[in-house]
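HUMAN:
Just now I want nothing more than another pair of eyes on a protein record. I would be glad if you read both lines and explained how they fit together. I have put the entry right below:
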Amino acid sequence: MTDEMPDTATGLDISGPPQEMYKLLRDHMPVMPIDHEMMQGTSVALHDDVVFVLQHPEIFSSDGAAEIGQVRPLIPLEIDPPGHSKYRKLLDPLFAPRRVADLESSTRELVNQLIDAVIDDGACNFHEAIGEPLPSQVFLTMFGLPVERTAEFVALKDGIIRPDGTDVDDEARLREETGQKIYSVLQEAIDERLEERRDDFISQFLDAEVDGHRLTTDDVLDIGFLFFLAGLDTVTASLDCMLAHLAQNPDDQRRLSENPSDIPAAVEELLRWETPVSGVIRVAVQDTELSGCPIAKGDKVAVNLGSANTDERFWDDADTVDFDREVNKHIAFGGGVHRCLGSHLARMELRVCLEEWHRRVPSYQLKPGTTPQYTMGLRNVDNLELVWEN
């Protein structure tokens, strides 16, 4: 779960490993005007500039930055301080380390059930077999939506994040239509909880108070809309990217199979190197500048998290994937007040999946003749075909 949504409008070609493109931007276009059919504004690539934007919502606002089929500002994504803090006070405890720890056993059991279904085959599409169903089922169970409708909900999520339109206007129409379907799903679930509460997030939202005021139904819908999209995609993207890297780097893979205690550090380093949520959007609320380049009030700013996480101006050995990196202050979960509220849950799911996968499938590789193809924005790998010997 994340309080950041992906930028699909940077104009970058990241169908393959994007690190060389990131370096090109940093070296030659660190603050670059964007005149793309999906967005007009400015791209920011240097680590220090990216961090500055994330840490100064009074200059670079989240309000109105996302255009993803919603009818009102999403909570807490598009709520800036001071209003943002009251919603985080409500939401942060749901993802506190203690709450997440209670989910580890059931998550580990689910990982093993998914592995059971493919291990004897000696091959699988990891995205379809593990990467997508694992976090989707964890999220839907927590949120209180029926797991048996996972495929339907994932398709709705994709209709927002990756609409299959013929042009920008067509994609905007598809997002609007899909958004209404998501609202309908959420409203149905809310109506059921109004009749009878359950042990899930929706019920907790309906009973919650923020600064002495109960959340309205619209508030719950706006929180739910964001959770629906983020909960069904971000961990999937991270698992896809990590397994794609490990399948192509046998030394790293072997280390995790032989030394599972190294997996937490590996998760952090692969989040830095891959940065599955490659960018986020902000809106300048005043005339300003970054690295000496002017940014006008009202301009959208595409904040390149992936480039910041591989910026050699900030990182030692930025181009080396190093599981022994002593200090790893990556911003794969964003930064500032909008930093990912679900980071503890994401880390747990990633760690548990890598532990169980490498325990049971200690050696694997890409299916011969296949090349991972990364989607834009949230960097899923739909064609992650893996093979191994039983």
